[in-house]
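#help-structures

NK: newbie question. if I give both the sequence and a SMILES, will the prediction place the ligand too? trying with pyridoxal-5'-phosphate
OV: yes, paste both and it writes out the complex. here, I ran yours:
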Amino acid sequence: MISIANPLIGEEEKQAVMEVLDSGILAQGPRVKAFEEAFAEMCGAKYAVATSSGTTALHVALLAHDIGPGDEVITSPFTFIASANSVLYTGARPVFVDIDPVSFNLDPAKIEAAITPNTKAIMPVHLFGLPCEMTPILAIAQKHNLVIIEDSAQSHGAAYHGQRVGSFGTGCFSLYPTKNITSAEGGMVTTNSEEIAENCRVIRQHGMRRRYYHDELGFNFRMTDVHAAIGLAQLKKLWPFTEARINNARFLNQHLEGVVTPTVPENSTHVFHQYTIRVPNGRRDEVLAGLQAQGIGCGVYYPVPVHQQRVYTELGYAVSLPEAEQAALEVISLPVHPALSSADLETIVAAVNGLVN
Ligand SMILES: *Cc1c(COP(=O)(O)O)cnc(C)c1O
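OV: that's the protein plus ligand as structure tokens.
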């Protein structure tokens, strides 16, 4: 059995956790602060604020930009549901713009048509580890005075024109076990704005600027020092992990036949959170079943685009987004994680090529 994800937890993580347990400071403390500093440095942002999950990172980031009822946030329909749900939590409305069929990311050419007087932000999702086309997105944001909230949950260390994701706008990362690095559960908001960073810290901790004085409604979205200790140990391994993902993806790209393999634009570093192929001609489910029967743990990210999920249709979403809908019918993500051996990669290639050709 080859699994689709395999978090690599070593002695460093275990020892770091034991040190926290022995220290007596378990909740948000010095490890969280150290993790925030190291994470900000990794993505080339001035500040990072740790939260309890990627979802709460998105929620906090939106609130920190004062997004709420009456506002609209443009985002992708082809993503994990947390991207759009975080907008709903604030009382604002997600507005879906179709994706580019090659990158699976927001199609910048379709964004402007979705802007209304209520649009407050664009939330590009750097899906599967590939950065969105940020140059046109930043230009649109600047022209219409919109905030950029990057859903970077799948793209730790990914870069566009040499600049790391999470540093173009307000970045939101997840540290869930299947992500490129993990803290078990956890999230991180990154920003170059002192004001936004401070807003995030306040919202994360019950709207408290001064101890037990609460000027606004906040939450308990803190990260614990136990989680931060794991995250800090994992962050030190981000580059070797990423290199292994990129090498695995290169091998798959070179050897798979008869399927549409990922393309990486010249201007981008794709960190391959997922290695996602397309199986056209209505054969996806058959190939998926064949792979599963051979013990290859693959996944469909995502089988239903967000605008077609029941939560959203019940809210009255009835848009047609043909590229996202087509992608949902054709994609399969194959294992690409750093724990794969060369024998695993050969097995995956032989299985896919055997089923498709
Ligand atoms: C994982 C993920 C999230 C949510 O992160 P959690 O840590 O699971 O809350 C948000 N957006 C995307 C694109 C994700 O993949």
